[in-house]
Please model this.
Amino acid sequence: MTATAAVNTVDCGTPVIQGYARIETDCLPEPVCLAHAGAMSMNLHLGTAFHSGDNKVTFFCTVRENNTRTSLSLEFGFHATVASVVIW
Model:
């Protein structure tokens, strides 16, 4: 990826600010919210919901059940590890 590593995690707010890119996971009590254009590596497990907010976002994932790397939607019953995120 050639995008700048300007993406950073931000406080999601209460209630959750809908404009942020967001990843919900079974491993954390609160979602992980992301802001600013760019890319960053991540290692989140058991993502349950992915939201683009007011952004165009590509979530790159590894499907745990078969170790396939994908940026496509996951089918029901599959769990993914978020490997990186690009917001543009």
Q: What stands out?
A: The chain has a mean pLDDT of 81. Strands lie at 8-10, 21-25, 32-35, 38-44, 47-51, 57-63, 68-70, 80-87. The chain has no helices and eight strands.
